[in-house]
Fold:
Amino acid sequence: MRTQVGIIGAGPSGLLLARMLQLQGIESIIIESRSRAYIEARIRAGVMEHWVAELTDEVGLGARMRREGLVHDGLEISFAGQRRRIDLKGLTGKSIMVYGQQEFVKDFVAARLDDGLPIHFEAAGVSIHNIEGDSPRIRFTDKDGAPREIECDFIGGCDGFHGICRPAIPADKLSIFEKTYPYAWLGVMVEAPPSSDELIYSSHDNGFALHSMRSPELTRLYLQVSPDEDLENWRDERIWAELQTRLTQDGDWRLNEGPVLQKGITPMRSFVCETMRHGRLFLAGDSAHIVPPTGAKGMNLAAADVKVLAGALTDFYKSGDSAGLDGYTAQCLPRIWKAERFSWWMTQMLHLSPDGDGFDRRVQLAEIDYITGSEAGARSLAENYVGLPFD
Ligand SMILES: Cc1cc2nc3c(=O)[nH]c(=O)nc-3n(C[C@H](O)[C@H](O)[C@H](O)COP(=O)(O)OP(=O)(O)OC[C@H]3O[C@@H](n4cnc5c(N)ncnc54)[C@H](O)[C@@H]3O)c2cc1C
Structure:
């Protein structure tokens, strides 16, 4: 098999890259290690920056998102017995779109398959070769057990944090910057209408909690827990008791409860790989960087990389101009680091540090008071949350 761009991974990065290339007449083949059913059921992010929603429209796949997604003009922060609203729209003129990542994935997979374009699901033993040469290769065993080889011009390394692409870059060409946190998120998806129209971030003396949603019928809730916490210790009754305590600190408002459809613990990490290109391999999304989910930036950063990469590949194929490909890492990194900073800042402002003392907690509460009480403070949060402009 031969194609122009071989794409490893059918997450948001790989699917968006393939779609943007397709619209420019550039061929690609996607190789995905999981099944279609698995990736379409994988619950992860849900907040799209305003421009990601617009990009989804531009690539012709925004119809269901516009019908079923929830446009939010603000968010709330709860602390010290009160709740304050950040008026995202009023402060920036922009809103965010709440639409589950798995729904985005479903829309892009369906469109690609309807167009008769290839995604090799359940590919085993995926490996990449000759990335420093002119025609890199991807080898894998397809779901029927047949060995396959794809020759391509470029490889899109869109295979997430645990994929095979980043490790294919020689260690001496990589600079890794990493931070781990002394907490994790226990997330539950609940069959119950959201208890508020907007997201509620809560900083409580028991720890952080977040009220979010994926649809008018599905609530997504998170609790700060220890990174070594055992899910077995969290029966539904304990989860509800803790969520009610942390999220309802401002009076008689209560969370809507319902059956817990899914629960899991996600560790928190900040990670940046400062080479996103090696030879003809280009990393995009979680394969190159990770943020803690507090700032809702993971999927949005993936889309930002892809926007740059798709533009650079288009320039190359349309006019032979490789400046965009040569400058790919340099163009992506400033936005990545701003998102890393924002995600780190939101995380440390809202979570209870196990090593913190009374002084630290009072400084934290003063910061939240400032951010939610000063227009300058709120505007900075809002500008980052809805998505920084592209240069
Ligand atoms: C458990 C979890 C929970 C998250 N929760 C949130 C959240 O609540 N809010 C938020 O904003 N962000 C969240 N994120 C972050 C967000 O989901 C990611 O930033 C986003 O998925 C990045 O998209 P991606 O396409 O780059 O990577 P991924 O979505 O990870 O996609 C990579 C794809 O590559 C495939 N793959 C991996 N290895 C191979 C291989 N060797 N060969 C072929 N295919 C391969 C994977 O199966 C996957 O389909 C979460 C991430 C994780 C991991």
Q: What stands out?
A: The radius of gyration is 21 Å. Residues 174 and 251 are 51 Å apart (CA to CA). The pocket of flavin-adenine dinucleotide is lined by residues 8-14, 31-34, 39, 44-45, 47, 101, 123, 126, 158-160, 163-164, 266, 285-286, 293, 296, 298-299, 302 (CB under 6 Å). The first strand starts at residue 5 and ends at 8.
